[in-house]
Fold this sequence. Notes:
By secondary structure, this protein is α+β, with helices and mostly antiparallel strands. The protein contains 5 helices and 9 strands; from the N terminus they run αββαββαββααβββ. The chain has a 5-stranded antiparallel sheet with strand order 2-1-3-8-9. A hairpin with a 2-residue loop joins β5 (about 125-130) and β6 (about 135-140). α1 (about 5-25) crosses α2. The longest helix has 20 residues, at about 5-25. It is globular and about 50 Å long.
Amino acid sequence: MLSLEEGKKAVVFARLIVETYVRKTPPPSLDLSSAFSEHHGAFVTLHAYPSYDLRGCIGIPLPIMSLEEAITEGAQSATHDPRFPPLEENELDNIIIEVTVLTKPELIYVNHPKDYFSSVSIGRDGLIVEQGNYKGLLLPQVPVEQGWDIEEFLSNTCMKAGLLPDAWFDKSTKISRFSGQIFTELKPHGAIKEKKIDGSSC
C-alpha cells in the first residue's frame, strides 16, 4: 500500500482538490509519485473541527481508476455529500481531511449467515452489501467509531444499501470485505498521520 510520505501527499492533494473545487478555481498541479497511477479504491472523508462531526464522505469503492482520479472524484463529491448542505468556503479552515485507500474487495462465501461472525473482523474489515440494484458500503473505521459488534456492522451496512437490517440473512445478498489504509490531518492544515482503526496514530 502507501508509505507514510505517500499518504501525507494523498491528504495534501485531497485538501487542494476540496479547496479549489469549493472556491471554483483551477484544479491543482501536484507532483505525485507512481503509486498514484496505480488503480485503487479510495474515500475522502471531511470532519468538522474540533467536534469531529462527519461533514461528508464519498469515494470510489472499486479499483476502477487511478488513485489520483479516485481521490479527485471523492474529494470533489464529498463537498456536496447529499446527506449534508454543500461545503462553504468559510468552512475550509474548520475541517479535517481524511483519505482511506482501499484494497480490492473480496466476496465472502458462507454456508450459513451466522458464518459471517467468524469471517468479518471489527477493526480490520470494511463491508460492501449488494442485493440486486441495492448496494451499500461502510469503511473499516465506522464500526470502531460507533462501537458496533459484527451483527450491528452487518445490519447497518444493509441499511446503508437501502435494505432491511436483516438482509444479510438472505442468500441473494452478497457481502464483500476489504481493508483500508487511513491518513488524516490532526487539525485543519496540520500534521498528517497514518491512523490506526482504533483511532491511534503512528
